[in-house]
Write a structure and sequence with these properties.
By secondary structure, this protein is mainly alpha-helical. It is built from one helix and no strands. 63% of the residues lie in helices and 0% in strands. Residues 40-59 are annotated as: Disordered.
Length: 59
């Protein structure tokens, strides 16, 4: 038979670790976003414009 106290402790531990991992990933995403937005301000290659096909005339 499982120890219910141990099972409860493990589930709460897993829940906390999940939240901590999510917070770390969110911070990393924010930091990466800041780095990439500051890089966009640096002049470089112009963005490519999408090439559109000509619309067909409906008769």
């Amino acid at each position: 038979m499982k120890n219910p106290a141990l099972s409860l402790w493990l589930s709460s531990f897993n829940w906390r670790m999940g939240h901590a991992t999510h917070a770390v990933r969110r911070q990393q995403r924010v930091a990466l976003n800041e780095m990439t937005t500051s890089m966009k301000a640096v002049p470089g290659k112009p963005k490519r414009k999408r090439w559109r096909t000509a619309r067909r005339k409906t008769v």
